[in-house]
Amino acid sequence: MVRxxxxxxxALAVFAVASPIRAQSPxxxxxxxxxxxxxxxxxxDPSMHARMxxxxxxxxxxxxxxxAFATIGEIVRQLKADPNTDWSTVNIEAxxxxxxxxDDVVLRAVVAxxxxxxxxxxxxxxxxRTAEAIKRIAMNHTRALDQEADYHAIATxxxxxxxxxxxxxNAADSRVVARIRGLGFAGLLTEGDHHAAHHLALAxxxxxxxxxx
Length: 213
Fold this sequence. Notes:
This protein is an alpha+beta fold. It has helices at about 30-35, 45-55, 65-80, 90-110, 130-145, 175-190, 195-205; strands spanning about 1-10, 10-15, 110-115, 120-125, 150-160, 160-170. The chain has 2 domains: about 1-55, no CATH class; about 65-210, no CATH class. It has a 4-stranded antiparallel sheet with strand order 3-4-6-5, covered by helices on one side. Strand 5 (about 150-160) and strand 6 (about 160-170) form a beta hairpin. The radius of gyration is 30 Å and the shape is elongated. Residues about 20-25 have low confidence and may be disordered.
């Protein structure tokens, strides 16, 4: 509120003039409270409340809600951005099936691990689709893992999954040995920088991609 004094001929007048208040943009916390119905509207100027309603409604969520969906969305954006994409060979369904395999292997495989000299021996098993997913991903990934500077990796298929042995190429390097044992099955699956490239190759319809992790 701004008070203005006006001095006339022998008279003093005081006028109260409302000063404009610039509403601040709501934060994500403000919008979250509004969505949850926990905002105190009684203490809020009506125009400010209307502004918040508009701004919060105009800020769409940024999360895609699910990891596989986000991965597919990222690949689709890359394909669309590449003017050389051959849409006649694109196969997003192949990528989706691979992501289902990844989900089965990471979340549903039964894993037994024991230390061996220089590393670990892992038995990953499952039933139905999970067993087949283990064979596809674990077997292929082991071949890629063996090409890494620090690891020697071999795998053998069993009826319900795979047996995998990972050891340090330099058995005297105690830090690498400890890393292998600490990473275990799930951690070792993440090693290497080939995953994203493989996903893109699958989506492009590269038949060679099906023989690699």
